[in-house]
Amino acid sequence: MNEARLVIGMPAGSLADPNRGGNLIALLKHAGFPTKGYDAGGPTSFPLHAMLVGWDGRPQEFGAQLGLGEVDIAIGGDDWVRERVLEFKFEYGRDLRLEKVLSLHRGGVRIVIIYDRRDPAESFDAWFAALLRAKPLVSMVSEMPYLALEWYLKKVEALGFGKSHAAYSVQKFKTPPRIQEGLVIYETWGKTEAKVKHAAVDFGLEITQSGSAIRNYGLEIGEVIMESETGIWANPAVRDNPEKYELARLFLLNLYGSVFAENKVLILFNAKNEATPGILEYLSANKLFGDEPTMNAGAKFTEFSVQMDADNPALPLAKVRYDLARLGATHIETVPLDSSIPGLDAIAF
Fold first, then answer.
1. Which of 5, 84, 124, 229 sits CB 3.0–4.6 Å from 222 for a disulfide?
2. Share of the chain above pLDDT 70, in %
3. Domains of the chain from N-terminus onward
4. Of 187, 189, 199, 192, nearest to 213 (Cα)?
5. Whole-angstrom Cα distance, residue 261 to residue 30?
6. Using CA atoms, how far apart are residues 25 and 328, in angstroms rounded to an integer?
7. How far is CA 27 from CA 30, 71, 118, 205, in A?
8. Residue 261 above 50 pLDDT?
Protein backbone atom coordinates (compact mmCIF):
# COMPACT_ATOMS: atom_id res chain seq x y z
CA MET A 1 0.00 0.00 0.00
CA ASN A 2 1.24 3.50 -0.82
CA GLU A 3 2.27 5.02 2.52
CA ALA A 4 1.53 8.51 1.18
CA ARG A 5 -2.17 7.73 1.21
CA LEU A 6 -4.65 7.98 4.04
CA VAL A 7 -7.16 5.13 4.19
CA ILE A 8 -10.53 6.31 5.53
CA GLY A 9 -13.23 3.93 6.73
CA MET A 10 -16.45 5.13 5.09
CA PRO A 11 -19.59 3.78 6.80
CA ALA A 12 -22.14 2.02 4.63
CA GLY A 13 -25.83 1.99 5.48
CA SER A 14 -27.85 5.00 6.57
CA LEU A 15 -24.81 7.25 6.87
CA ALA A 16 -24.20 6.85 3.14
CA ASP A 17 -27.79 7.87 2.31
CA PRO A 18 -27.86 11.55 1.28
CA ASN A 19 -31.30 11.86 2.86
CA ARG A 20 -30.32 10.24 6.16
CA GLY A 21 -27.26 9.86 8.34
CA GLY A 22 -27.02 13.51 9.30
CA ASN A 23 -26.11 14.64 5.75
CA LEU A 24 -22.64 13.12 5.90
CA ILE A 25 -22.20 13.48 2.14
CA ALA A 26 -22.99 17.20 2.30
CA LEU A 27 -20.73 17.59 5.32
CA LEU A 28 -17.80 16.09 3.42
CA LYS A 29 -18.53 18.25 0.38
CA HIS A 30 -18.60 21.42 2.48
CA ALA A 31 -15.29 20.35 4.00
CA GLY A 32 -13.75 20.25 0.53
CA PHE A 33 -13.91 16.48 0.12
CA PRO A 34 -16.71 15.69 -2.34
CA THR A 35 -17.17 11.97 -2.76
CA LYS A 36 -17.79 9.83 -5.82
CA GLY A 37 -19.62 6.52 -5.56
CA TYR A 38 -20.35 6.76 -1.85
CA ASP A 39 -24.07 7.42 -2.25
CA ALA A 40 -24.34 4.53 -4.72
CA GLY A 41 -22.87 1.90 -2.39
CA GLY A 42 -19.26 2.36 -3.43
CA PRO A 43 -16.51 2.14 -4.24
CA THR A 44 -15.92 5.53 -2.65
CA SER A 45 -13.30 7.89 -3.97
CA PHE A 46 -12.37 11.51 -3.39
CA PRO A 47 -11.95 13.01 -6.89
CA LEU A 48 -10.17 16.15 -5.68
CA HIS A 49 -7.79 14.29 -3.36
CA ALA A 50 -6.16 11.20 -4.81
CA MET A 51 -4.17 10.72 -1.60
CA LEU A 52 -7.38 9.98 0.30
CA VAL A 53 -8.63 6.41 -0.12
CA GLY A 54 -12.17 5.44 0.84
CA TRP A 55 -12.65 1.97 2.35
CA ASP A 56 -16.37 1.19 2.35
CA GLY A 57 -17.46 -0.87 5.31
CA ARG A 58 -19.79 -1.28 8.23
CA PRO A 59 -19.33 0.92 11.31
CA GLN A 60 -19.55 -2.29 13.36
CA GLU A 61 -16.24 -3.43 11.86
CA PHE A 62 -14.14 -0.27 11.88
CA GLY A 63 -12.87 -0.68 15.43
CA ALA A 64 -11.17 -3.95 14.48
CA GLN A 65 -9.88 -2.56 11.18
CA LEU A 66 -8.40 0.45 12.96
CA GLY A 67 -6.76 -1.77 15.54
CA LEU A 68 -5.20 -3.96 12.87
CA GLY A 69 -4.05 -0.97 10.79
CA GLU A 70 -6.26 -1.88 7.85
CA VAL A 71 -7.70 1.65 7.88
CA ASP A 72 -6.01 4.75 9.28
CA ILE A 73 -9.07 6.71 10.37
CA ALA A 74 -12.76 5.84 10.25
CA ILE A 75 -16.16 7.47 10.56
CA GLY A 76 -18.23 5.54 13.07
CA GLY A 77 -20.12 5.46 16.32
CA ASP A 78 -18.51 5.47 19.75
CA ASP A 79 -20.54 2.40 20.69
CA TRP A 80 -19.36 0.13 17.88
CA VAL A 81 -15.73 1.17 18.29
CA ARG A 82 -15.98 0.40 22.00
CA GLU A 83 -17.62 -2.94 21.23
CA ARG A 84 -14.72 -4.04 19.03
CA VAL A 85 -12.15 -2.83 21.57
CA LEU A 86 -13.86 -4.94 24.23
CA GLU A 87 -14.09 -7.95 21.92
CA PHE A 88 -10.33 -7.84 21.38
CA LYS A 89 -9.86 -7.60 25.14
CA PHE A 90 -12.19 -10.42 26.19
CA GLU A 91 -11.67 -12.83 23.30
CA TYR A 92 -8.06 -12.25 22.24
CA GLY A 93 -6.39 -10.59 25.22
CA ARG A 94 -5.32 -7.65 23.08
CA ASP A 95 -5.41 -4.02 24.17
CA LEU A 96 -6.52 -1.75 21.33
CA ARG A 97 -5.73 1.91 21.89
CA LEU A 98 -7.92 3.86 19.50
CA GLU A 99 -8.45 7.59 19.67
CA LYS A 100 -11.54 9.66 18.95
CA VAL A 101 -10.19 12.72 17.16
CA LEU A 102 -13.33 14.60 16.10
CA SER A 103 -17.00 14.67 17.05
CA LEU A 104 -19.45 15.09 14.17
CA HIS A 105 -22.37 16.04 16.47
CA ARG A 106 -24.81 13.65 14.82
CA GLY A 107 -26.10 10.10 15.19
CA GLY A 108 -26.68 10.37 18.92
CA VAL A 109 -28.01 7.22 20.63
CA ARG A 110 -28.11 5.68 24.10
CA ILE A 111 -27.01 2.15 24.96
CA VAL A 112 -29.39 0.86 27.62
CA ILE A 113 -30.31 -2.22 29.62
CA ILE A 114 -33.94 -3.20 29.10
CA TYR A 115 -36.12 -5.54 31.17
CA ASP A 116 -39.72 -6.43 31.90
CA ARG A 117 -40.43 -4.89 35.29
CA ARG A 118 -43.53 -6.31 37.00
CA ASP A 119 -43.52 -4.16 40.13
CA PRO A 120 -43.47 -0.41 39.34
CA ALA A 121 -42.09 0.35 42.80
CA GLU A 122 -39.13 -2.02 42.46
CA SER A 123 -35.77 -0.55 41.46
CA PHE A 124 -33.70 -2.15 38.73
CA ASP A 125 -30.95 -3.13 41.18
CA ALA A 126 -33.50 -4.84 43.41
CA TRP A 127 -35.03 -6.64 40.42
CA PHE A 128 -31.61 -7.73 39.13
CA ALA A 129 -30.41 -8.94 42.52
CA ALA A 130 -33.60 -11.00 42.90
CA LEU A 131 -33.01 -12.51 39.46
CA LEU A 132 -29.45 -13.51 40.36
CA ARG A 133 -30.58 -15.08 43.65
CA ALA A 134 -33.29 -17.07 41.84
CA LYS A 135 -31.25 -18.28 38.86
CA PRO A 136 -27.66 -19.54 38.82
CA LEU A 137 -27.64 -19.04 35.04
CA VAL A 138 -29.14 -15.87 33.58
CA SER A 139 -29.39 -14.86 29.95
CA MET A 140 -29.48 -11.67 27.95
CA VAL A 141 -29.54 -10.63 24.31
CA SER A 142 -27.61 -7.87 22.56
CA GLU A 143 -26.24 -6.70 19.24
CA MET A 144 -23.21 -5.59 21.28
CA PRO A 145 -22.39 -8.59 23.47
CA TYR A 146 -19.07 -7.28 24.77
CA LEU A 147 -20.48 -3.94 25.89
CA ALA A 148 -23.12 -6.02 27.65
CA LEU A 149 -20.46 -8.26 29.18
CA GLU A 150 -18.39 -5.35 30.50
CA TRP A 151 -21.49 -3.87 32.15
CA TYR A 152 -22.59 -7.23 33.57
CA LEU A 153 -19.27 -8.07 35.22
CA LYS A 154 -19.18 -4.70 36.96
CA LYS A 155 -22.83 -4.96 38.01
CA VAL A 156 -22.68 -8.45 39.55
CA GLU A 157 -19.53 -7.48 41.44
CA ALA A 158 -21.20 -4.34 42.80
CA LEU A 159 -24.27 -6.33 43.91
CA GLY A 160 -22.23 -9.01 45.66
CA PHE A 161 -22.63 -11.81 43.09
CA GLY A 162 -19.12 -11.65 41.66
CA LYS A 163 -18.17 -15.17 42.72
CA SER A 164 -21.41 -17.00 41.96
CA HIS A 165 -22.17 -15.39 38.58
CA ALA A 166 -18.79 -14.40 37.12
CA ALA A 167 -18.73 -17.04 34.37
CA TYR A 168 -19.97 -16.03 30.92
CA SER A 169 -20.48 -17.33 27.42
CA VAL A 170 -21.04 -15.27 24.26
CA GLN A 171 -22.95 -17.22 21.64
CA LYS A 172 -25.48 -16.96 18.85
CA PHE A 173 -29.21 -16.71 19.52
CA LYS A 174 -30.47 -19.20 20.52
CA THR A 175 -27.90 -21.92 20.80
CA PRO A 176 -27.73 -24.28 23.82
CA PRO A 177 -25.92 -22.72 26.80
CA ARG A 178 -22.28 -23.74 27.07
CA ILE A 179 -22.12 -23.02 30.80
CA GLN A 180 -24.20 -23.99 33.83
CA GLU A 181 -23.95 -20.79 35.85
CA GLY A 182 -23.21 -17.14 35.25
CA LEU A 183 -24.37 -15.33 32.11
CA VAL A 184 -25.16 -16.44 28.58
CA ILE A 185 -25.11 -13.49 26.19
CA TYR A 186 -26.90 -14.20 22.97
CA GLU A 187 -25.60 -12.11 20.08
CA THR A 188 -28.48 -11.08 17.87
CA TRP A 189 -29.26 -8.97 14.82
CA GLY A 190 -32.08 -6.81 16.08
CA LYS A 191 -35.56 -7.00 17.64
CA THR A 192 -34.01 -7.20 21.07
CA GLU A 193 -37.25 -5.91 22.61
CA ALA A 194 -39.28 -8.82 21.23
CA LYS A 195 -36.92 -11.38 22.71
CA VAL A 196 -37.13 -9.76 26.14
CA LYS A 197 -40.91 -9.28 25.90
CA HIS A 198 -41.51 -12.94 25.07
CA ALA A 199 -39.16 -14.06 27.87
CA ALA A 200 -36.71 -15.75 25.52
CA VAL A 201 -34.07 -14.12 27.74
CA ASP A 202 -34.08 -12.43 31.14
CA PHE A 203 -33.03 -8.97 29.94
CA GLY A 204 -31.24 -7.23 27.10
CA LEU A 205 -29.00 -4.44 25.93
CA GLU A 206 -30.52 -2.14 23.32
CA ILE A 207 -29.55 0.84 21.15
CA THR A 208 -32.14 3.59 21.29
CA GLN A 209 -32.71 7.22 20.41
CA SER A 210 -36.06 8.08 21.95
CA GLY A 211 -36.94 4.85 23.75
CA SER A 212 -40.31 4.70 21.98
CA ALA A 213 -39.88 1.11 20.69
CA ILE A 214 -38.94 -0.02 24.19
CA ARG A 215 -42.05 1.61 25.65
CA ASN A 216 -44.22 0.16 22.88
CA TYR A 217 -43.21 -3.31 24.05
CA GLY A 218 -44.09 -2.42 27.63
CA LEU A 219 -40.47 -2.70 28.74
CA GLU A 220 -38.39 -0.51 31.02
CA ILE A 221 -34.92 0.99 30.79
CA GLY A 222 -32.92 -0.27 33.76
CA GLU A 223 -29.68 1.61 33.17
CA VAL A 224 -28.03 3.77 30.54
CA ILE A 225 -24.63 2.21 29.84
CA MET A 226 -23.30 4.92 27.54
CA GLU A 227 -24.24 7.67 25.13
CA SER A 228 -22.83 7.41 21.64
CA GLU A 229 -22.48 9.63 18.59
CA THR A 230 -20.82 9.51 15.20
CA GLY A 231 -17.24 10.74 15.13
CA ILE A 232 -13.85 10.29 13.55
CA TRP A 233 -11.67 7.61 15.14
CA ALA A 234 -7.98 7.08 14.47
CA ASN A 235 -5.25 4.56 15.03
CA PRO A 236 -2.66 6.56 17.02
CA ALA A 237 0.08 4.84 14.99
CA VAL A 238 -0.78 7.29 12.20
CA ARG A 239 1.35 9.80 14.12
CA ASP A 240 4.39 7.63 13.42
CA ASN A 241 4.05 8.20 9.68
CA PRO A 242 4.65 11.92 8.94
CA GLU A 243 2.93 11.85 5.54
CA LYS A 244 -0.18 10.04 6.78
CA TYR A 245 -0.27 12.26 9.85
CA GLU A 246 -0.31 15.46 7.78
CA LEU A 247 -3.05 14.04 5.55
CA ALA A 248 -5.07 13.12 8.64
CA ARG A 249 -4.71 16.63 10.05
CA LEU A 250 -5.69 18.14 6.70
CA PHE A 251 -8.80 15.97 6.60
CA LEU A 252 -9.73 16.62 10.23
CA LEU A 253 -9.20 20.39 10.15
CA ASN A 254 -11.41 20.86 7.12
CA LEU A 255 -14.05 18.50 8.44
CA TYR A 256 -13.99 20.39 11.73
CA GLY A 257 -14.60 23.61 9.78
CA SER A 258 -17.64 22.06 8.13
CA VAL A 259 -19.07 20.84 11.45
CA PHE A 260 -18.30 24.12 13.23
CA ALA A 261 -20.05 26.12 10.50
CA GLU A 262 -23.33 24.24 10.79
CA ASN A 263 -26.21 26.60 11.62
CA LYS A 264 -23.87 29.59 11.46
CA VAL A 265 -24.21 32.61 9.18
CA LEU A 266 -22.13 35.64 8.33
CA ILE A 267 -23.90 39.02 8.56
CA LEU A 268 -22.37 41.72 6.38
CA PHE A 269 -23.48 45.35 6.66
CA ASN A 270 -22.41 48.96 6.35
CA ALA A 271 -22.85 51.85 8.77
CA LYS A 272 -22.03 55.53 8.78
CA ASN A 273 -19.01 56.20 10.94
CA GLU A 274 -21.05 58.22 13.43
CA ALA A 275 -23.21 55.13 14.04
CA THR A 276 -20.22 52.90 14.70
CA PRO A 277 -19.94 53.42 18.49
CA GLY A 278 -23.56 52.32 19.09
CA ILE A 279 -23.15 49.29 16.86
CA LEU A 280 -19.92 48.28 18.58
CA GLU A 281 -21.62 48.57 21.98
CA TYR A 282 -24.48 46.33 20.74
CA LEU A 283 -22.09 43.73 19.26
CA SER A 284 -20.06 43.66 22.47
CA ALA A 285 -23.09 43.39 24.75
CA ASN A 286 -24.39 40.41 22.76
CA LYS A 287 -20.95 38.78 22.40
CA LEU A 288 -21.11 38.86 18.62
CA PHE A 289 -17.36 38.93 18.18
CA GLY A 290 -14.37 37.26 19.76
CA ASP A 291 -11.22 39.23 20.39
CA GLU A 292 -12.37 42.18 18.29
CA PRO A 293 -15.00 42.86 15.59
CA THR A 294 -14.14 42.54 11.93
CA MET A 295 -14.30 46.08 10.52
CA ASN A 296 -13.09 47.90 7.43
CA ALA A 297 -13.28 51.65 8.09
CA GLY A 298 -13.58 54.13 5.24
CA ALA A 299 -13.88 57.92 5.06
CA LYS A 300 -17.62 57.98 5.74
CA PHE A 301 -18.72 54.34 6.16
CA THR A 302 -17.49 51.25 7.98
CA GLU A 303 -18.03 47.71 6.73
CA PHE A 304 -18.77 45.04 9.35
CA SER A 305 -18.86 41.25 9.21
CA VAL A 306 -20.32 39.29 12.10
CA GLN A 307 -20.56 35.51 12.49
CA MET A 308 -23.43 34.16 14.59
CA ASP A 309 -25.49 31.08 15.35
CA ALA A 310 -28.62 31.19 13.19
CA ASP A 311 -30.81 29.10 15.48
CA ASN A 312 -30.03 30.56 18.89
CA PRO A 313 -33.43 31.21 20.58
CA ALA A 314 -31.79 33.57 23.07
CA LEU A 315 -30.55 35.79 20.25
CA PRO A 316 -32.69 35.26 17.11
CA LEU A 317 -31.13 36.19 13.79
CA ALA A 318 -34.16 38.24 12.75
CA LYS A 319 -33.96 40.35 15.91
CA VAL A 320 -30.22 40.98 15.46
CA ARG A 321 -30.78 42.26 11.93
CA TYR A 322 -33.64 44.48 13.10
CA ASP A 323 -31.61 45.83 16.01
CA LEU A 324 -28.65 46.59 13.74
CA ALA A 325 -30.91 48.41 11.28
CA ARG A 326 -32.30 50.53 14.12
CA LEU A 327 -28.75 51.44 15.10
CA GLY A 328 -27.97 52.62 11.57
CA ALA A 329 -26.79 49.50 9.72
CA THR A 330 -27.61 49.38 6.01
CA HIS A 331 -27.26 46.83 3.19
CA ILE A 332 -27.52 43.98 5.70
CA GLU A 333 -26.71 40.70 3.97
CA THR A 334 -26.83 37.20 5.47
CA VAL A 335 -24.58 34.50 4.03
CA PRO A 336 -24.81 30.82 5.13
CA LEU A 337 -21.44 29.30 5.98
CA ASP A 338 -20.19 25.99 4.58
CA SER A 339 -16.96 26.11 6.56
CA SER A 340 -15.47 28.07 9.44
CA ILE A 341 -12.02 27.19 10.75
CA PRO A 342 -10.92 29.08 13.90
CA GLY A 343 -7.31 27.94 13.50
CA LEU A 344 -5.05 24.92 13.37
CA ASP A 345 -5.36 24.41 17.12
CA ALA A 346 -9.05 23.53 16.61
CA ILE A 347 -7.94 19.88 16.24
CA ALA A 348 -6.00 18.11 18.95
CA PHE A 349 -4.73 15.19 16.86
1. 124
2. 97
3. 6-108+229-261 (3.40.190.10), 117-218 (no CATH), 264-340 (3.30.70.120)
4. 192
5. 9
6. 41
7. 5, 21, 46, 31
8. yes
